[in-house]
Design goal:
The protein has two domains: 4-230, Alpha-Beta Complex (DHBP synthase), CATH 3.90.870; 258-308, no CATH class. Strands 1-8-2-3-7-4-6-5-9-10-11 form an eleven-stranded mixed β-sheet, sandwiched between helices. Strands 12-13 form a two-stranded parallel sheet. The chain is α/β, with parallel strands linked by helices. It has helices spanning 4-11, 33-41, 63-73, 88-94, 100-109, 126-129, 143-151, 172-179, 218-225, 258-264, 293-308, and strands at 28-30, 46-48, 55-59, 82-84, 114-119, 134-138, 156-157, 185-187, 199-204, 207-212, 229-230, 271-274, 283-286. The longest helix is centred in the C-terminal third of the chain and has 16 residues, at 293-308. The structure holds adenosine monophosphate and magnesium ion.
Length: 313
């Protein structure tokens, strides 16, 4: 078992190790917020539940700890991390300016699946933001994540807890399946209630722009602050949703008219992910028989994972 006392005795000498070399390298899954806190305080990674997907968290102010996130995920350094805060006040520790529209969005949608990209303060290490002068900030709604954040004196940098490019994890077991040999502790908060990533909003030349669609529908945001602008694509970084392949299973995934696709691939073992109907196929999972988008979002990544490891062609 990985004891925090043992971690303490070795951590100074092994700042760049993902695991403490002096202790057992088994990943623990549990609900011990105190243990998560102590590991994070000693510069180790902890996978945390949020309402969107599981995050891979480190002290946002500790450059060496944040580096471990990139190592564990095999994440390219050009892809910035989202900083998770416990409340509106903590935003001021990482952002140098909060536009009025951002204030409105925070009061309306936080805690919740909305990330705001704001001008960054210099005390946020460049590794967190991939050298950008902006920082993505979000207050998550999951009770365990909030309990952990409130127990810490620093915000948490946390991207999704999956290998770069793959489907995001929505259960603790998903994290263990893929990062289990790379991180000491997974805080288990049950299946994610939203199940897809946060919506990301930026502010360019006084205008609010959408960088990534996600848990908060664009219509809800536009209902509060009016029409969103189009992001200038030359901007670095390109959000993962704009990269040619992202959130991708290993197997070929085709999106389209299911009746036509099933006819075209009639001789193959096709695993079908349908929205609100069932189809006669080798396997078929319906995301929400009631046609509820939230229910469908909650199920999407788990179904993609299950089919990815099945015998489907
Ligand atoms: P993940 O949590 O894995 O979905 O990744 C975080 C994503 O947030 C990044 O890939 C970026 O698309 C976005 N992001 C974070 N910080 C910024 C920023 N400063 N500017 C633009 N996008 C950002
Ligand atoms: Mg991600």
């Amino acid at each position: 078992m990985l004891l925090v006392d043992e971690v303490e005795s070795h951590s100074v000498a092994s700042k760049l190790q993902l695991f403490d070399p002096g202790v057992d390298l088994r990943t623990m899954i549990g609900v011990d917020v105190r243990k998560a806190k102590q590991l994070l305080e000693h510069g180790f990674l902890v996978a945390i539940p949020t309402e969107t997907v599981y995050g891979l968290a480190a002290n946002a102010f500790d450059e060496a700890a944040v580096l471990k996130i990139f190592q564990a995920k095999n994440r390219p350094s050009f892809d910035p991390l989202i900083v998770h805060v416990r409340d509106r006040e903590q935003v001021d520790e990482v952002a140098s300016f909060v536009p009025p529209e951002a204030e409105v969005l925070m009061s309306k949608f936080w805690p919740g699946p909305l990330t705001l990209v704001l001008p960054k303060k210099s005390q946020v290490p460049d590794i967190v933001t991939s050298g950008l002068n902006t920082v993505g900030v979000r207050m998550p709604a999951h009770p365990l994540a909030l309990e952990l954040l409130r127990s810490l004196e620093f915000p948490l940098a946390a991207p999704s807890a999956n290998p770069f490019g793959y489907v995001s994890p929505t259960t603790a077991q998903h994290v263990a399946d893929q990062l289990g040999d790379k991180i000491p502790y997974i805080l288990d908060g049950g299946p994610c209630a939203v199940g897809v990533e946060s919506t990301i909003i930026g502010f360019e030349e006084g205008q609010c722009v959408l960088y990534r669609a996600g848990g908060v529908p664009v219509e809800s945001i536009e209902g509060v602050i009016g029409e969103l602008g189009i992001a200038q694509r030359k901007m670095v970084p390109v959000a993962p949703g704009m990269i040619e392949s992202h959130y991708a299973p290993r197997k070929l995934l085709i999106v389209g008219d299911l009746v036509a696709l099933l006819r075209e691939h009639a001789n193959k073992r096709c695993a079908v992910i349908a929205f609100n109907k069932t189809y006669d196929a080798w396997k078929c999972e319906t995301l929400s028989l009631a046609g509820d988008l939230n229910e469908a979002a909650r199920n999407l990544f788990a179904v993609m994972r299950a089919f990815d490891v099945s015998d489907a062609e």
